[in-house]
Amino acid sequence: MELTLWTYEGPPHVGAMRIASSMKDIHYVLHAPQGDTYADLLFTMIERRGQRPPVTYTTFQARDLGGDTAELVKKSIKEAVERFKPKTLLVGESCTAELIQDQPGALAKGMGFDMPIVNLELPAYSKKENWGASETFYQLTRTLLKEKVSSSEKISPLRWKELGRRPKVNILGPSLLGFRCRDDVIEIQRILSEQGIDTNVVAPLGASPSDIERLIDAEVNICLYQEIAEASCEWLRRNFGMEYTNTIPIGIKNTIEFVNEVHNKLDLPLTNKEELENKSKLPWYSKSVDSNYLTGKRVFIFGDGTHAIAAAKIAKEELGFEVVGLGTYSREMARQVRATAKDLNVEALITNNYLEVEDAMKKASPELVLGTQMERHSAKRLGIPCSVISTPMHVQDVPARYSPQMGWEGANVIFDDWVHPLMMGLEEHLIDMFKHDFEFVDGHQSHLGHTATQTKDFLNSYENKEKISKEGIIWTESGRAELTKVPFFVRGKVKTNTEKYAILRGIPEISDETLYDAKAYFS
Amino acid sequence: MSKVEFNKETGPREVFCGLTSIVWLHRRMPDAFFLVVGSRTCAHLIQSAAGVMIFAEPRFGTAILEEKDLAGLADAHEELDRVVNDLIARRPEIKTLFLVGSCPSEVIKLDLATVAEKLNKRFLGQVRFVNYSGSGIETTFTQGEDGALKALIPLMESSNAEKLLLVGTLANNVEDRFKKIFRNLGISNIESFPPRQSTELPKIGKNTKVLLTQPYLSDTVRDLKHRGCEIISAPFPLGIEGSTKWFLAAAKAFNISELKVHEIISPLINRSKLALESHKEILKGKRLFLLPESQLEISLARFLHNECEMDLIEVGTPYLNKDLMKEEINLLPDNTKIVEGQHVEKQLDRVRDSNPDLVVCGMGLANPLEAEGISTKWSIEMVFSPIHGIDQAADLAGLFSKPLRRNQILTSKTLVTH
């Protein structure tokens, strides 16, 4: 049993719904009680979808449990098939139905339909949403393509040459409730098309079952989001020999690396290598003298595996930040995140507990947080600027404008999204600096609003009560006065370091001089 | 009773479960914690239904069952013990801890009553434990509050003092207004259930006169009756008509003259009627379809027809207690079609066929209907907004007129651009 106040991921059947809702001509019969229908609002409210998810819930009740819930399942399947006429049927159960073991998938298969039926077994008590999405997409791909396995030869990535046409690839992984997937797909298709590469199928987003059957018309698979597509890509590689890409094209370096990887796999000469460097404004904006102040900015990163790893690379190599924390809630990608963290000399945080993330954030005293909507709230409480880089989705993460994370335009979006909050942070500092000037109107609110009162609380607490640290060290008046002169965004760190220094040296009282001693000691 | 047409429908439903009511209950009683014993789905439901991210450590959470908990119930009880201990250590300010059953905990027959009893002994004098079920196999949406209140009744001490007890969660400002009006009427001993502090439960007995503020409290009413309370029969205080009859019924129970009631509330009625006018202008003659969810549907239909002159196509309700709703049903126009239960697909067919001007529905259905050109109002807003009482009648009407007014604005061509 795990106490959960808030969760980054939903249950695995919500992952299955993401696949079903992303696609056309598919229906998902979900053996589940009525309350589980809440999941519809994730799509209709957060994504503002104008269609209901293609899901029929059996909505069994307590009084059905004594009777025949299996009959209810069959009735629901029959009605759903008659009404929605899907080309492929997904059948599964949510947490409660898993306990009563009606085996809806097996029941559906015995009903004599001629459409393909995918029996989804998604263990609700051990797995989560992204795993459920991945498993659903994999089972669907497998069901629709397994008959072609033995008859087809291994697909060579060079086949396009023999066929005398442009190379074709599939873009796999984008789905509803995935971070900026809608726009990433457009960006990646545009990049590939410029290089003379055609997109065969995008899936699951916008695909129909017949599109899944056509996946093998392409030479190579683009695995755009490992959380969703890696299992399917791996199955297609094992059974059809289709190679797939490993590079996630987020950031300039990774996008160039991605273009290279696709060309290498297809044995397609890359003729415009130099041009690629100039496709995005990020490299120049980052190099321009104005960005000098970004150097060494302390950044704390938490999100899904794909976006957290990409963010760490961009932060370090493309913007010149210092990564002071890196973590993910994607246990499936813990290994990769740990490896990246090791390269950055930080300890990876793998957790689904947002309070642990907030604690780690506090300890790292970053100047910028890159996280989910939850980290945005935590950062707001701590008065630290934040930019959102990852799911879970919020209505704000589905902007009206074109706003990809991937490719050249994605890099532009990232530069703006990450740097603007920092500039705002600087503004906060200026407000702090000028607040004693007579022109300053008390109560001026910057973007951080009323909640970002870390500075004020901090000063108040220092001026009023907390003159003694937890360890019993006394802050003298001169020490406190000096501390208030330190810019707010490093004040926490200075305070901790000074106290640490005082303990180390056995100094019972901290004066202004102790602050400078500590500063010299830790620099 | 007016000639109302009653129908029952079964089939797939599209409604929230009782766990959702934690969203308003935990705000009503800031010294209580709601611990759902359930699955990741339960946790995800509450955070999604609340529609907001958590701004601080919340006073509700889920003890998520894992595979090992399903293997042996004995271990599950031990695990729950551990979670509760951790929680109380972390949140020592909690005075009442609700153990809330869910679909999975009901199916595996986790005995939360016994767990609560044991914990009550251990934490005697520090934290009280009560249990109820908010599971979707037994409860719909607002029925969760019914379960929570029912669970508190055994903790209420007995008293024969005469008092008026308002039962059902109200917005604090609305509650204050009601109490002021009752005091002006000459009723001095007024209490609310649930109270604002979980430890300040009202005492009840044979001179307790219960006035319901919400229509979804069937089980609570039954248990209050068992404790000797008198239930005042009245429509619910939504709109001017409902609120007036509600005040009159209370006054009658306390032998206060109708004249006195009218004297006190007439000014309120007059100004409220004035405020209602502009909304009525928009709503008048518009055709309304209510899908089942909050059990407020019948009262809303009565208000929107009688006071705003809307036409009722269909009034859905997840559950109908004809006894409790008697006074409301009497006020409905003849031939009103009430449908208890749901077959969401067939109901949506009827929505499309009847071409309504406004549909009251859950959040999962609103945007798809809007995309088909049908205006909607989310039912969940009724349980989060202060809509009770005479003074709020115009605000209540405003919830329904706003989507229609917005449509007018967005489809009108008033500005010529050069």
Task: Give a structural overview.
The complex is a heterodimer of chains A (523) and B (418). Chain A has helices at residues 12-22, 40-46, 62-66, 69-84, 95-100, 104-109, 129-145, 159-163, 181-194, 209-213, 226-240, 252-266, 273-277, 282-287, 305-318, 334-343, 354-364, 373-382, 407-434, 454-464, 477-485, 488-505, 512-522, and strands spanning 2-4, 26-31, 55-57, 88-93, 117-119, 168-172, 198-203, 220-223, 243-244, 298-303, 322-328, 348-350, 368-371, 386-388, 474-475, 509-510. Chain A is an alpha/beta fold and 523 residues long. In chain A, helix 2 (40-46) links the parallel strand 2 (26-31) and strand 3 (55-57). Chain A is globular, with a radius of gyration of 27 Å. Chain B has 418 residues and is an alpha/beta fold. In chain B, helix 10 (239-253) packs antiparallel against helix 11 (258-283), helix 10 packs across helix 12 and helix 11 (258-283) packs parallel to helix 17 (393-411). In chain B, strand 11, helix 13 (326-331) and strand 12 form a beta-alpha-beta unit. Chain B contains 17 helices and 14 strands. The chains are: A alpha/beta (523), B alpha/beta (418). Chains A and B meet through strand 1, helix 2, helix 4, helix 5 and helix 18 of A and helix 2, strand 3, helix 3, helix 4 and helix 5 of B. Strand 1 of chain A pairs antiparallel with strand 3 (60-64) of chain B.
